[in-house]
Amino acid sequence: MSVERSPEPRRGSGPMKTVRRVADTMSTALNVIGTLLILGLVILVNADVIGRELFLSPISGVPEIVSMSIVAIVFLQVSQAFRMGRFTRTDAFLDAVSRRSSRVRSAIELLYVVAALALIWFVFSASYPLFEKAWERGTYVGTVGDFTAPEWPVKLVILIGSVALMIQMAIGGILALIGVIHPEDVSGGGQ
């Protein structure tokens, strides 16, 4: 099984390749954690269903755990999705443009990355105060006496996932910029 990587500059400096390798490793690790969380949810939900049917006793907190885990999974896996070029978008227009000019495609990719970076920065900056509040006040989900779970771990995952995504987007932006300046150095655009 081969691992697909995002486009590398044909020529590049050692530091950029090192940054790329560290960022890719971080995104892959977060993706693996997200996948393990999915597996854990599958086991938990099945155990809850079996408990309800066979023992007439559900596992406390399953709905809360599932709802918090879904958010965590998204932010754990989003940087890997971007890195692998699997972010939701259509490439039909970009493919048509790249047949005429790889430089124009790279410029469009650069605009896309800059806009996406601004959006993710907004998500990060809006989420940070929520993390601080959850950490300082010890906010939780659930019902006291039945099941409670702290909110801050999920808020922290949102921050970590946002940072990982911004790093991958910055790398994509650098590749797109290289494609604008030297179109022969980058194959496949900014992702």
UniProtKB/TrEMBL annotation:
The entry's keywords: Cell inner membrane, Cell membrane, Membrane, Transmembrane, Transmembrane helix, Transport
GO MF annotations, alphabetized: transmembrane transporter activity
Amino-acid biosynthesis found in the keyword field: no
Protein's membrane topology: Multi-pass membrane protein
Cross-referenced PANTHER family: 2,3-DIKETO-L-GULONATE TRAP TRANSPORTER SMALL PERMEASE PROTEIN YIAM
Subunit structure: The complex comprises the extracytoplasmic solute receptor protein and the two transmembrane proteins.
Annotated ranges, domain Tripartite ATP-independent periplasmic transporters DctQ component: 41-170
GO annotation, cellular component aspect: plasma membrane
Originating organism: Aquibium oceanicum
Highest taxon of the lineage: Bacteria
Family note: Belongs to the TRAP transporter small permease family.
Protein name: TRAP transporter small permease protein
Subcellular location: Cell inner membrane
